[in-house]
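seq as requested:
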Amino acid sequence: MPKTANFEPISATGDSVRHRGSSNTKALLVRAARSRFARFGYSATKVRDVAADAGVNIALINRYFHSKEGLFEACLSRAAEDVDGPAEAYDDMGIEGLVERLLETTLDFTDGEMPLQLLLLQQSSGDAIADEIRRKTLAKIAQRLAIASGWDESNPNKGEIQLRSQLALSVALGVVWSRVSMGMEPLSTASVEELKVPLRQVFKSLLAIG
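struct tokens:
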């Protein structure tokens, strides 16, 4: 039975508050905001609650991120980095390596972080600007998958490669949503090993056309 994601608010008190620098404070705010945005959505998340979860003064959100929108964009950027990895991680990965990375991203429930990232990337915001930020972030991740699958401007199959990469990303998002948010059975309680074989086949069939 897979471990479920832990979406408890992030709290920071005592010495950790008094002695951290600006980079640590920003990281705490992003982590606290990410948790609230993923659980409650953009519109229902209040910056005062984020500040309270992080154990900092609410004024620091404006100082570091300028606005709630800026904080949300920082959360999505962090989510994209965690899900997508650095650009060099895809160099010479090949389809087999790409498929394994997608499997790891989709099925890693060991500490709750990755499901939280994926939920944040798919949670409807109820805000046009926030949803546009999310759309661009997802498009960036899908394009990285497409390039790793053989996409470039000269490839005659570039349109199909791009489409299939978006489909592969959608499968990953859908699996996490069904397991974490919906509790769909037997998918929700299926083991990682039970899911790896069929998901590997799906991802490979979508991406191995470069």
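Confidence is low (pLDDT under 50) at residues 1-19.
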